[in-house]
Amino acid sequence: MSASPSNLGSHPPGRFLSLLPALLLLLASPPAAVRAQGFGVYEQSTCAMGAASAVVARPCDDGSAMFFNPAALGAVQGLTLSAGVTGIVPDGRFTADLNGAVTNMNRRLLPVPHAYVAYGFGDRFAVGLGLYTPYGLETSWPDSSAAAFLGYESKLHSFYLQPTASVRLTDRISIGAGLTVVLSTVELNQLLDLSTQPVPAGAGVPAGTLFGQLGVPFQTPFASGHLGSSTATGVGGNFGVRIRLTDRVDLGARYLTRVTLNYDGQATFAPVSTGLVLPAGNPYGVPAGTPMDAVIQGSGVFQGPLGPQGIKTSITMPDQFAGGLSVRPIDGLRLEADYLWTHWSLFGRLPIQFQGGAGTELRIEDYNNTSAVRVGGELTLRDGLMLRLGYAWNQAASPDKTVTPLLPEGRRSLFAAGLGWHAGSHVDLNVAYNLLLQVNRRGRTRDPLPGVQPTAALNNGEFHFLGHLLATTVTVHF
Question: What are the respective helix, strand and coil percentages of the chain, to the nearest 5?
Answer without folding.
Answer: 10, 50, 40
